Amino acid sequence: DLESTQDPRRAYDLDRAHVFHSWSAQAGLDPMVITKAEGPHIWDADGNRLLDFTSQLVYTNLGHQHPRIVAAIQEQAASLCTVAPGYVNGARSEAARLIASHTPGDLDHVFFTNGGADANEHAIRMARLHTGKHKVLSTYRSYHGGTQLAVNVTGDPRRWPSDNGSSGTVHFFGPFLYRSPFHSTTEAQECERALAHLEQVITLEGPGTIAAVVLESIPGTAGIMIPPPGYLTGVRELCDRFGIMLIADEVMSGFGRSGRWFAIEHDGVTPDLLTFAKGVNSGYVPLGGVAISDAIYETFAHRAYPGGLTYSGHPLACAAAVATIRTMEDDAVVENAARLGSDVIGPALRELSEQHDWIGEVRGTGCFWALELVADRDTREPLAPYGGSSPQMAAVLKACREEGLLPFANYNRIHVVPPLNIGDDEAREGIAKLGVALARARAAG
Ligand code: PLP
């Protein structure tokens, strides 16, 4: 059945005729055809091999076509492709057990969704019903998904067209020392001021109205801003003091990306609800979910939870999760991500920043890094405006592709987010290509 889909030219033409793409004006699009992928590489329609420094949308944490995940999906497909959520399925039960064995504290109950946005929607619904309160606080410079509530919780320009003021969401500033909203000069100061700011927002919004604070443990798409030590602990304390649920969005930062199973572990904090997707099964089949604390589980022990999805805990997706998590355990993938960050990627990017004055800051951990590109290191003027692009950024991205590197870019940033099992030499090679691309774009003006 699929033979006719293998012709790249036909695939491209049919895409332009019939496929409506995310977040884009359709007419100007010229999407790349990917014909093949393996490990950290992809191939385009002309047969060029590119090193995938994006992990697609930061989800192929074990790279492309990992044989154990492919085999698990095939095995599950051969035996039982699908059963509805109300029935027990072995792959789903085992995936839930494995996830619960790695989530912090008492987050031992798992509600499965199709992805990250609906995981956040359900986590917020649970928090609202558990607390009897409605308002949700989240940060500017964040991304929580594209559905109506999740995009309103989001703090980036993609929220604006969908914000009609009726979602019960309020935004505050998280810590971001390089562009500090609090004019801080040290991490300790940024931490203290960001917490004082959040306490004020809670007080002024009314603690009795706030169901949840939703935070990416490390904001991802918005810039990989590592929170200063103590910040997440401080948010936890504020939530406890005011009877507010803490929802950690680990959709991008979870499952090893930051060098820990979950990024919130860097501060030793247990949230009330934790949302995940992407890396849970390397994104081979859509899967997300909410890990739920004992207390919130109790709220729904004798009262129906008013929510569900046709594909909640789909066996093919859960089989992929079982193989992914077992591979991560067997191959010490999380430890490898931490080592790559501290010994390979971090040092190589810092070295790069010494050679290229467009790099204003290098920040990250594990396989989760951002380069903040600036037109001027002193003023920190971004190389592209917030919410937009620029000829210089476009030139960097074009040069990356010509050098055989697939880069992840957002406004004035390049993110270095390869798979967690990339080889040391491949990681260094990709960063060298990035260096050549930066130099070429700089020379072009
Ligand atoms: N939360 C975070 C932190 C994300 O990075 C994303 C996607 O990039 C989402 C939620 C939304 O996930 P999905 O696109 O699977 O709905």
From TrEMBL:
Family, per entry = Belongs to the class-III pyridoxal-phosphate-dependent aminotransferase family.
- Which protein is depicted? Aspartate aminotransferase family protein
Report the source organism. Answer: Kineosporia corallincola
Cross-referenced InterPro entries = Aminotrans_3, Aminotrans_3_PPA_site, PyrdxlP-dep_Trfase, PyrdxlP-dep_Trfase_major, PyrdxlP-dep_Trfase_small
Instruction: Give the domain of life.
Output: Bacteria
| A single GO molecular function term of this UniProt record | transaminase activity
UniProt entry keywords in alphabetical sequence: Aminotransferase, Pyridoxal phosphate, Transferase
